[in-house]
Amino acid sequence: MKDYAIKPSTLLVAHSPDADDIFMYYAIKFGWVSPPVPFDNIALDIETLNEAALAGTYDVTAISFALYPKIRNDYALLRTAVSFGEGYGPKLIKRKGTRLRRNFKVALSGRHTTNAMLFRIAYPEARIVYKNFLDIEKAVLEGEVHAGVLIHESILDFDESLEVEREIWDIWRELAGRELPLPLGGMALRRSIPLTRAIAVENALIRAVDVADRHRHLLARMLLERHLVRIDADTLDTYLDLYANDKSVTMDAAQLEALNRLFQIGYEHGFYECPIDAEDFMIPTEYLSERFS
């Protein structure tokens, strides 16, 4: 798509400090992709970002997909930098050999996360506490809670005294009623940004994710050498296979179907005031071709 001149001004891009978000953003940070306007970035945990999105804090922000219907009037949903699970995802873990009662106490990573919504539907009597995802395993090990839902890199390596009670993927599959990828996280852009600029920003992010994926091993090595990720090389490679890959560049038809099914499930269980179609809330990229034709 042709690039059009846009008046410079810095946009603040907020993402999580997790390996997949850092990986997808740092093609811009390292200068491999030039954004249409100067970007600055901030890294915060996903629930902090969800709360900030509700307050309209950042221009472009990572979000949990389950949050999006609640911010749809203020943010457009981007097609890129998406994370879906396909046969995998967050894990409900407990101490080995223990049995969970119906009202077990559980630690979740945030009220507005996708895993929290699916968990609450599956376990309506559980007593929930919310914690930073890095503290959940410890809370289970120390007996503060009976179980916890691990997300991000935590799903790949946890204490051997713990075991998986249930995969959130299995909850999703039962609720969805068919085989669809599990929508976890994406990005949103403030609607007050002028449309031509919004289109150019989304295109730059798409290019960044594409370049990151095509030069994955070089970028991963640079992140490791600069201590920008908190995991080792082998774990990073495994994690990027799961959540930052060629399917993260732009949402495909199956991912869109899955996202709409997530929104329908949320509506059916009282989390949203109305069902929505994700494509109705994306940036209309056809605008430029029509305007300048």
Detailed description of the structure:
This protein is an alpha/beta fold and 293 residues long. The protein folds into two domains: 11-84 and 182-291, Periplasmic binding protein-like II (D-Maltodextrin-Binding Protein, domain 2, 3-Layer(aba) Sandwich), CATH 3.40.190.10; 91-176, D-Maltodextrin-Binding Protein, domain 2 (3-Layer(aba) Sandwich). It has helices at 19-29, 46-54, 114-122, 136-141, 168-176, 195-214, 216-225, 233-243, 253-268, 286-291, and strands spanning 11-15, 39-43, 60-64, 75-77, 83-85, 91-95, 105-108, 127-130, 147-150, 162-167, 182-190. Strands 1, 2, 3, 4, 5 and 11 form a six-stranded mixed β-sheet that branches. It has a five-stranded mixed β-sheet with strand order 8-7-9-6-10. Helix 3 links the parallel strand 7 (105-108) and strand 8. Helix 1 (19-29) packs across helix 7 (216-225).
Give the topology:
Blueprint: E1 11-15, H1 19-29, E2 39-43, H2 46-54, E3 60-64, E4 75-77, E5 83-85, E6 91-95, E7 105-108, H3 114-122, E8 127-130, H4 136-141, E9 147-150, E10 162-167, H5 168-176, E11 182-190, H6 195-214, H7 216-225, H8 233-243, H9 253-268, H10 286-291
Parallel strand pairs: 1-2, 1-3, 7-8, 7-9
Antiparallel strand pairs: 3-11, 4-11, 5-11, 6-9, 6-10
Helix pairs in contact: 1-6, 1-7, 3-5
Supply the key terms.
6-stranded mixed β-sheet, 5-stranded mixed β-sheet, 293 residues, globular, alpha/beta, 2 domains, disordered N terminus, 11 strands, D-Maltodextrin-Binding Protein, domain 2, 10 helices
